[in-house]
Amino acid sequence: MEGEKNRPKPNHLIGEKSPYLLQHAYNPVDWHPWGEEAFELARRENKPIFLSIGYSTCHWCHVMAEESFEDPEVAALLNETFVPIKVDREERPDIDAVYMEACLSLTGTGGWPLNVILTPERLPFYAATYIPKESRFGMTGLFELVPRIQKLWADQRKDVVASADEIRERLIRAQTGRKTGTEPGIDLIHRTYRELIRRYDQNNAGFDNAPKFPAPHTLQFLIRYWSETGEEKALDMAEETLRAIRRGGIFDQIGYGIHRYTTDAEWVVPHFEKMLYDQAFLALACTEAYEATREPFYREVADEVFEYVLRDLQSPDGAFYTAEDADSEGVEGKFYLWTAEDVEALLGPADTDLFVRAYGIGHSLKSEGPVPGVNILHQRVPVADLAEEFAMREEEVRTKLEDARKILLSARSHRPRPSVDDKVLLDWNAFMIAALARAGAVFDEERYIEAAETATGFLIGRMRDEDGKLFHRYRDGETAVPGMLNDYAALVWALTELYPATFDGTYLREARLLADRMIDLFWDEAEGGFFTSPRGGEALILRRKEAYDGAVPSGNSLALTALLTLYRLTGSTRYAQIASSGLGAFSTMASERPSSYAGYMDALLSALSHSYEVVVAGERDDKRTTQFLDVLKGYYLPYTSVVLRDRQNETVLNEVAPHTREMDLDRGKPVTYLCRGPACEQPVTDTSTLREVIAGERVPWGKDYMEQIMKRG
User: Fold this and answer.
1) Angle, alpha carbons 483-465-284 (nearest 5°)
2) Which residues contact 160 (CB under 8 A, 6 or more apart)?
3) Residue limits of the Spermatogenesis-associated protein 20-like TRX domain (predicted)?
4) Angstrom distance (rounded) from CA 17 to CA 476
5) Is 568 exposed, middle or buried (0-12, 13-18, 19+ CB in 10 A)?
């Protein structure tokens, strides 16, 4: 009974499903979830809203919560002055994006935690990221800030509301004032490449200085740019960066998977949270690097990433959890840190010398936190140098290090783990499905394809309603939050990756249904491009439309890429027309800083490429059919589409890819049909001819490819 008396009283978040919101459910701050109930309370009590946005694996969100939101004095001040609202940015990226844009407009910077003061009508008039409890180092603390806002609201409310209205108008002008450009050409692609060269870190690889983000979708663009142009520097930048990431502290050297970013330029000191989307895009970049170079190293890294995801982030239902926290036992990164003494206790003196030399580990610490060059594992010395230094063969060094890794992994499994955010986000799951499907096809790894299919079944079976509309979040048996552009676009893209991995035509049917629904819900008929939120959805203060890349490609980039792929697979020129209009809608915006639009540039490169559209007519159990498919898999053809027309899928292909209807066997033998741009080749009936055609001289870029396919349509 005594324990019940001392237990804190929960606030209004106690009934939520979000792990982040539940982390704050016993704060003394009287948090409300986002919704009309909280807005009505603010109007009734004539109070501004204190909106705090974060996510469950955010280190500085934890810091602010522990310092301020768990403090009774701070809570009393916030409760007296505001109606406090908590939002999980991963659950509601639409809300986060709107108020992050406001923060950037007001302060010039952004990040999480994001704290915004709103009028009861949800209009922002103050914004900041982390706010300390007390003022320090030039940062105004809550004890000083909140009374100021309280006085301002009491004495100058009309001015505050007028200012908030002006801020909203500024955001709307910025959104609608972006001129729709003309359909972009190849020069914009070349400008992107040149800008990436200027930003490239010649000493450490990657782009810009600290903090260092992996940006694997940018690396994927560079690999594809090399494929189309032969520019070796593009491939070099991608390869050097992937190798630097794998060597660095940003990569979990013991359990695999990539951390969020590093705080230094050398890739050594990570921010330790692990996000599902980072795993997906790194695996995709490595898969494409393998396709382009056939270097086993890149397959090994992709396999390592998948090993981590399938071991630690896969739910019993086959879907994938969102992230792992950076902190454990109250210390950032503690789960991942080692000293030489830790290692020696597990390996013994002889093997410890090799391991600590290889991974740059030092001796005991006074602090338990991460210290570069002491306890953050990174591949400091190459295997060849270790072999010479320790008088071993290189293979012997690799074996010893791998044996040691497994011992440390087993020991680490007994440590208190960082918490897992176990909600399922549809778009992030679709990213992983796309990565698994692509890798499964490239590596002939059936278990990856099976994992992708199982996750797809979960999303379609549990995160889509009877009317075909998607939901963004699933947790603990509950689906919630209407799907946003990223959800539809990512799932269409994933299905277009899953189809060539399985040649199951039902995935093409699902992709077309979702693409058509996406167009109906999000397409801007007046100006082109896709809105982030659906038509008829919750009315926020701003309906955004964005092509700028963040940690992942924008929803518009994903949608345009998926539609171009779907056009090639199905022959539906509607998808090409919308993609063409969408590329034009953002061309002016993208031209301002092209390298920040790598996802958009990949879609543009897809539109301008002269890759083949291939239909193989033949039964999948016929050895000759398999030989045709194997020839195609032997080349890196990132924008080439392949349809398999067999008896099993004849009916569904007649429905969803009617252009293949007349493409049949040649006197009972498998045959391959190839088209490129506006022209088709003669049907190919033997693998040697197919190989000659595919390996033939590349058609140079000339007239706009989109113009050609419009004529063809």
Assistant:
1) 50
2) 119, 125, 152, 153
3) 11-171
4) 7
5) buried
Given the DSSP bridges, would you call strands 274-275 and 327-328 parallel, antiparallel or unpaired?
A: unpaired
C-alpha span between 126 and 160 (Å, rounded): 10
Angstrom distance (rounded) from CA 513 to CA 575: 12
Residue 609 · residue 702 · CB < 8 Å: no
Residue whose token pair is 């393998």: 290
What does the block give as tokens for 242?
A: 């992937």
Burial letters 370-389, b for 16+ CB under 10 A, else e? bebebbbbbbbeebeebbee
| Interval 566-604: pLDDT, tens | 999 999 999 999 999 999 999 999 999 999 999 999 999
- Crossing angle (nearest 10°) for helices 426-443 and 296-308: 140
Q: Superfamily assignment of 2-176 in CATH? A: Glutaredoxin (3.40.30.10)
CB atoms within 10 A of CB 610: 16
From residue 486, alpha-carbon distances to 177, 314, 528, 580 in Å are: 23, 21, 17, 19
- Per residue in 620-635, is it b (16+ CB within 10 Å) or e — as a string? eeeeebeebbebbeee
In sequence order, what DSSP letters do the residues of 378-397 get, joined into one string? ---S-HHHHHHHTT--HHHH
Residue 592, Cβ density class (10 Å: 0-12 exposed, 13-18 middle, ≥19 buried): exposed
**Residue ranges of the domains in the chain?**
2-176, 190-326+421-608, 331-417, 612-697
* Amino acid (1-letter code) at residue 109: T
Q: Give residue 7's pLDDT.
A: 66
Pull the structure tokens for residue 553: 């490609």
- Return the amino acid letter for 494: A
* Per-residue pLDDT at 366: 57
Q: What Å distances lie between residue 38 and 13, 53, 147, 168, 299, CA to CA?
A: 12, 15, 22, 21, 50
For CA atoms 456, 458, 460, 463, the dihedral sign is: negative
Of 631, 461, 487, whose CA–CA distance to 552 is shortest? Answer: 487
Query: Would the CATH topology of 2-176 be identical to that of 612-697?
Result: yes
Q: How confident is the model at residue 445 (pLDDT cuts 50, 70, 90)?
A: very high
CB distance 232 to 254 below 8 Å: no
Residue 471 tokens, joined: 């939901």
* pLDDT for the residue numbered 60: 85
CA angle 695, 677, 689 (to 5 degrees): 30
pTM of the model: 0.92
Q: Which helix (H) or strand (E) holds 401?
A: helix 394-412
Q: Comparing C-alpha atoms, which of 213, 195, 206, 258 is closest to residue 236?
A: 206
Q: Read off the pLDDT band of 110 (50, 70, 90).
A: confident
| Token representation of residue 19 | 């792990």
Of the candidates 102, 111, 95, the one whose C-alpha atom is nearest the C-alpha of residue 171 is 102
Decide yes or no: CATH 3.40.50.80 for domain 612-697.
Answer: no
CATH 2.60.120.970 fits 190-326+421-608, yes or no: no
